[in-house]
Amino acid sequence: MSDEQKVAERVVTGMMAKDAFSQWLGIEVLETAPRRSKLRMTVRAEMINGFGVTHGGIVYSLADSALAFACNAKGTIWMAIENTIGYPKSVHTGDVLTAVAEEESAGNKLGFYRVVVTNQNGETVSTFRGTVYNTGKEHPTA
């Protein structure tokens, strides 16, 4: 295992241990690597909005967690400064969602990520793009 991979695993494990919201969502970390993460969660009844579908904030939060784990897995603290999301397909109670975040490009200060969220049938339910800022500070668990 490379040193980069060891750092990525330490950082994501440390972040997840302190992330009460991701824990409440029921997020499971499936894969961790520098500049990439893959997460899974199951939609519960309390995540449904008044229209009978999953609240968009739930799907957004899954994608945002995937973004955070992917960009911080490099060992420095990166913070989201702008995100956009689209919802091409509705999500319902019991759906199992998988979010894959991957770096598209990054410089010294800014990084650009794409997160695709799919359901248990492999259908895309959300596309998310995130811009992150490098604080230059080492991650405490790196």
What is the structure about, briefly put?
The chain is α+β, with helices and mostly antiparallel strands and 142 residues long. Helices cover 27% and strands 42% of the residues. A hairpin with a 2-residue loop joins β1 (28-33) and β2 (36-42).
Protein architecture, described:
With 142 residues, the chain is of the alpha+beta class. The protein has one domain: Hotdog Thioesterase (Thiol Ester Dehydrase, Chain A), CATH 3.10.129.10. It is built from 3 helices and 6 strands. The chain has helices spanning 3-18, 20-25, 56-72, and strands spanning 28-33, 36-42, 76-86, 96-106, 110-118, 124-138. Strands 1-2-4-5-6-3 form a 6-stranded antiparallel sheet. A hairpin with a 5-residue loop joins strand 5 (110-118) and strand 6 (124-138). The longest helix has 17 residues, at 56-72. It starts with a helix and ends with a strand.
